[in-house]
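Working notes for the structural subgroup meeting. M.R. asked for a predicted model of this chain before we commit to crystallization trials. I am recording the input and output together here so anyone reviewing the notebook later can reproduce the run.

Input as submitted:
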Amino acid sequence: MSQGIGHFVFGVGATTGVLMATGLDKKIKNTEPIRIAGGIFAMIPDAGKLIPSLDFFHDGWPADIFWLHNFLDNTFDPKDTALNSFWLIVFMLVTLIIFWLKNKGRT
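Returned structure, recorded in token form:
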């Protein structure tokens, strides 16, 4: 089970990458709320920790719809290590730096 911060930062990084790949970063003036929503979206399968009746949703392939949640939990980081969360944070920072460099001249 990957740490919650890992899911969030992967969601932010992946959303940022999708915005750049599709060119929507040029069309949408303020993408920060969309990127934060992507991080929250990645954590939706963990709602079962707050509402136990939703716990069924956490395991299985449908959880991968939420930015590869099941893959991160069971394949990438099954032991819930801080080191793997660190690398996901690095991924997010790199995508945000690329995003900033790509859009720094835009007003």
